Amino acid sequence: MQEVIAGPKDHSRKTIMLMVTLALLTLSLVAVAVTGSLYVAGRDAATSALPVVSVGATVQAPPYQLSIIANASRPLGVAVNAAGDRIYVTESAGSRETKVFDREGKLLGSLAPPDTDSASRNPIYVAVNADGRVYISDRLRRTIDIYSTDGAYEGNLAPPQGEDWSPLGLSFDEEGNLVVTDISKGNHRVLVVNPQGEKVLEFGKEGKGPGELSFPNAALRLNQDRFVVSDSNNGRLAVFDGEGRFQFNVGGGMALPRGLAYDANTGRLYVVDTSNHRIVAYEAQGDRFRQLFTAGSEGVGDGEFEFPNGIALDSNRRLYITDRENNRVGVWGY
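The structure corresponding to this sequence follows.
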């Protein structure tokens, strides 16, 4: 075959074709970028069902399992104190206590309300405030029990005056207010209670529509201007503004989202996707949530889960994830 050497006219023609090809490629990449980001529907957007936007994933390096904390019987909730040297884990079987571990996984002790036995209590979620006090929701007793930093029982938090509740998820905001998900019949709402025990905000109600919730398992206040709620039985996250006004839902194939943890330094939100046996991470900044990656899969080996439930983040970006059916807490990091 004879080699063809391009002359000046052929170069010009090829240059034009190359420019056209590059232009088309650029347009394609822009289209992919637009469809690959999660643009959320505002609360005023017209919808006949749920304003859920599917998520286009952007691959980023996920965490990996560093170690495990054993000796927990079907653990559900987990929290870490500010110093990172106390990990609190609620058990839904066995003694039904809240176990206390150090950062190396050594068992230090346990917490349980006095005058109760394993048949009469059922601790679910746990949170630690800035002073080191420990708050634990009890599904069976419909209470929030409080313990001092040294583990002494201080009683339980009464519901707002004149109200009944069935508290579940617990977290603290930057002002020291307790954010509680309430799953009492007909309510399925979020309550914000100040340190004096007074209700300062309430939002959400039971249902499937925009702004409605079905067994919310966790609620976090992000940077004081936004709440995120794991709307578990609706299979989505519900986002509200700082005044409790509904903004949008975030979907994307989650099954029973439960525990939530937020890294304020990176704007990264971690969600426990319980029935899919994994963790889902979102970029939760601005007016959109963008899925970054998933981590974990179903199984009993390293990096695997059997119905994970709760999650906590320490100051060193270590994630503690309760692995219920594997009777352990996975410690993950980067």
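The first helix runs from residue 8 to 36.
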